[in-house]
Amino acid sequence: MKNYETVFILNPVLSEEQMKDTVQKFTKVITDSKAEVINEEQWGLKKLAYPIQHKSTGFYNLIEFKADPDVINKLETEFRRDEAVMRFLTTALDKHAVEYNERRRKGAFNKDKKAKAKEEAAS
Predict the structure, then answer these.
(1) Helices 16-32 & 69-81, crossing angle to 10 degrees?
(2) Number of domains composing the chain
(3) Phi and psi dihedrals of 76, rounded to 5?
(4) pTM, 2 dp
(5) In a domain, 102, yes or no
(6) Which of 59, 76, 110, 123 has the CA that lies 20 to 30 A from 32?
Protein backbone atom coordinates (compact mmCIF):
# COMPACT_ATOMS: atom_id res chain seq x y z
CA MET A 1 0.00 0.00 0.00
CA LYS A 2 1.19 3.49 -0.89
CA ASN A 3 0.63 6.79 0.90
CA TYR A 4 -1.58 9.36 -0.81
CA GLU A 5 -3.16 12.68 0.01
CA THR A 6 -6.07 14.26 -1.73
CA VAL A 7 -7.15 17.88 -1.52
CA PHE A 8 -10.56 18.84 -2.80
CA ILE A 9 -12.57 22.04 -2.93
CA LEU A 10 -16.30 21.94 -2.22
CA ASN A 11 -18.92 24.41 -3.41
CA PRO A 12 -19.26 27.32 -0.93
CA VAL A 13 -23.09 27.32 -1.09
CA LEU A 14 -23.22 24.04 0.86
CA SER A 15 -24.36 24.19 4.45
CA GLU A 16 -21.97 23.07 7.19
CA GLU A 17 -23.83 19.76 7.49
CA GLN A 18 -23.87 19.12 3.72
CA MET A 19 -20.14 19.79 3.61
CA LYS A 20 -19.44 17.34 6.45
CA ASP A 21 -21.67 14.70 4.82
CA THR A 22 -19.80 15.08 1.53
CA VAL A 23 -16.41 14.73 3.22
CA GLN A 24 -17.70 11.70 5.13
CA LYS A 25 -18.89 10.15 1.85
CA PHE A 26 -15.38 10.37 0.36
CA THR A 27 -13.81 9.04 3.55
CA LYS A 28 -16.23 6.11 3.36
CA VAL A 29 -15.19 5.39 -0.25
CA ILE A 30 -11.59 5.13 0.99
CA THR A 31 -12.35 2.96 4.03
CA ASP A 32 -14.76 0.68 2.13
CA SER A 33 -11.89 -0.10 -0.24
CA LYS A 34 -9.88 -1.47 2.70
CA ALA A 35 -7.63 1.57 2.82
CA GLU A 36 -6.54 3.37 5.98
CA VAL A 37 -7.31 7.05 6.57
CA ILE A 38 -4.31 8.59 8.35
CA ASN A 39 -5.38 12.20 8.64
CA GLU A 40 -8.36 14.33 7.75
CA GLU A 41 -8.33 18.12 7.83
CA GLN A 42 -10.91 20.75 7.02
CA TRP A 43 -9.16 23.97 6.11
CA GLY A 44 -12.41 25.89 5.91
CA LEU A 45 -13.72 28.49 3.50
CA LYS A 46 -10.86 30.02 1.49
CA LYS A 47 -10.63 32.49 -1.36
CA LEU A 48 -9.78 30.87 -4.69
CA ALA A 49 -6.89 32.07 -6.84
CA TYR A 50 -9.28 32.35 -9.79
CA PRO A 51 -13.05 31.86 -10.18
CA ILE A 52 -14.27 28.29 -10.61
CA GLN A 53 -17.89 27.83 -11.74
CA HIS A 54 -18.43 31.57 -11.11
CA LYS A 55 -17.47 31.11 -7.42
CA SER A 56 -14.60 32.97 -5.75
CA THR A 57 -14.47 30.87 -2.54
CA GLY A 58 -14.63 27.20 -1.62
CA PHE A 59 -14.38 24.76 1.29
CA TYR A 60 -10.92 23.16 1.25
CA ASN A 61 -10.45 19.63 2.63
CA LEU A 62 -7.50 17.26 2.88
CA ILE A 63 -7.50 13.50 3.40
CA GLU A 64 -4.24 11.60 3.86
CA PHE A 65 -4.49 7.82 3.48
CA LYS A 66 -2.75 4.52 2.70
CA ALA A 67 -4.27 2.58 -0.17
CA ASP A 68 -3.68 0.35 -3.15
CA PRO A 69 -3.44 2.24 -6.47
CA ASP A 70 -6.81 0.93 -7.71
CA VAL A 71 -8.57 2.83 -4.90
CA ILE A 72 -7.54 6.12 -6.50
CA ASN A 73 -9.64 5.43 -9.60
CA LYS A 74 -12.73 4.76 -7.45
CA LEU A 75 -12.17 7.89 -5.38
CA GLU A 76 -11.59 10.17 -8.35
CA THR A 77 -14.65 8.76 -10.11
CA GLU A 78 -16.70 9.73 -7.04
CA PHE A 79 -15.16 13.23 -7.10
CA ARG A 80 -16.17 13.65 -10.74
CA ARG A 81 -19.73 12.44 -10.11
CA ASP A 82 -20.38 14.75 -7.17
CA GLU A 83 -21.56 18.22 -8.22
CA ALA A 84 -20.43 19.71 -4.89
CA VAL A 85 -16.76 19.11 -5.79
CA MET A 86 -15.28 22.01 -7.74
CA ARG A 87 -11.67 20.73 -7.96
CA PHE A 88 -9.61 17.85 -6.59
CA LEU A 89 -6.01 16.67 -6.66
CA THR A 90 -4.70 13.32 -5.44
CA THR A 91 -0.96 12.96 -4.94
CA ALA A 92 1.19 9.91 -4.19
CA LEU A 93 3.54 10.72 -1.30
CA ASP A 94 7.19 9.70 -1.18
CA LYS A 95 8.99 8.91 2.09
CA HIS A 96 10.04 12.55 2.57
CA ALA A 97 6.48 13.83 2.19
CA VAL A 98 5.21 11.20 4.65
CA GLU A 99 7.83 12.26 7.18
CA TYR A 100 7.02 15.94 6.63
CA ASN A 101 3.28 15.31 7.15
CA GLU A 102 3.97 13.41 10.39
CA ARG A 103 6.05 16.31 11.71
CA ARG A 104 3.43 18.83 10.62
CA ARG A 105 0.64 16.92 12.41
CA LYS A 106 2.72 16.87 15.60
CA GLY A 107 3.10 20.66 15.37
CA ALA A 108 6.86 20.72 14.76
CA PHE A 109 6.57 23.75 12.48
CA ASN A 110 4.40 25.83 14.83
CA LYS A 111 6.65 25.63 17.90
CA ASP A 112 8.72 28.68 16.96
CA LYS A 113 5.60 30.78 16.41
CA LYS A 114 4.09 29.64 19.75
CA ALA A 115 7.33 30.39 21.61
CA LYS A 116 7.51 33.88 20.08
CA ALA A 117 3.85 34.53 20.96
CA LYS A 118 4.48 33.51 24.58
CA GLU A 119 7.51 35.81 24.80
CA GLU A 120 5.51 38.73 23.39
CA ALA A 121 2.65 38.06 25.82
CA ALA A 122 5.07 38.00 28.75
CA SER A 123 6.59 41.37 27.75
Answers:
(1) 150
(2) 1
(3) -70, -30
(4) 0.81
(5) no
(6) 59
Domain range enclosing 28: 2-92
Sign of CA dihedral 60, 61, 62, 67: negative
- Whichever domain contains 12, its CATH number is 3.30.70.60
Answer yes or no: is 98 within a domain: no
Q: Where are the alpha helices (DSSP H) in 33-81?
A: 69-81
Q: Is the separation of the CB atoms in 9 and 48 below 8 Å?
A: yes
In a domain, 52, yes or no: yes
The CA dihedral of 25, 46, 101, 24, to the nearest 10 degrees, is: -10
Is residue 120's pLDDT more than 70?
no
pLDDT confidence of residue 78? 92
Could you give the CA distance from residue 59 to residue 16 in angstroms, rounded to a whole number?
Answer: 10
Q: Where are the beta strands (DSSP E) in 18-102?
A: 36-52, 55-67, 85-92
| Residue (of 123, 94, 16) closest to 61 by Cα position | 16
